[in-house]
Amino acid sequence: MTMPRIVGVLSALASIGIAVVVLRADQARHARQIQKLHIEQQQMHQRIWEQEMEMARLRSPRMIRERAERLGLADGKNLPNLAPPPSVDD
């Protein structure tokens, strides 16, 4: 093998090696970002679930009756049947 061929082959191998390292670093960065977003998504699902449970608790007839009594709006016996407000869908 001649010297120019050896230099060419070594240059090609070095270029391939550098490309592999760059791609692996980029892949690791994207994997960390995906993991971070996945954790954030889980936290948002948990927060939504907690807020839905709080809404259900506050919409219960017993809670409405208790709040009305506390505010002095009714004695708790003559309250009309209140339907929950319509849900807001985005």
How would you describe this structure in keywords?
90 residues; 2 helices; mainly alpha
How would you describe this protein?
It is rod-shaped and about 100 Å long. It contains two helices and no strands. Helix content is 76%, strand content 0%. It has helices at 3-59, 61-71. The chain has a domain at 33-71. With 90 residues, the chain is mostly helical.
Number of helices: 2
Low-confidence stretches: none
Q: How many β-strand stretches? A: 0
Distance between the termini: 69 Å
Whole-angstrom Rg: 32 Å
Outline, from the CA principal axes?
Answer: rod-shaped
Q: How would a textbook summarize the main sheet?
A: none
Q: In terms of quaternary structure, what is this? A: single chain
Structural class: mainly alpha
SSE ordering? HH
Helix content: over 70%
Strand content: under 5%
Mean pLDDT: 87
Topology:
Blueprint: H1 3-59, H2 61-71
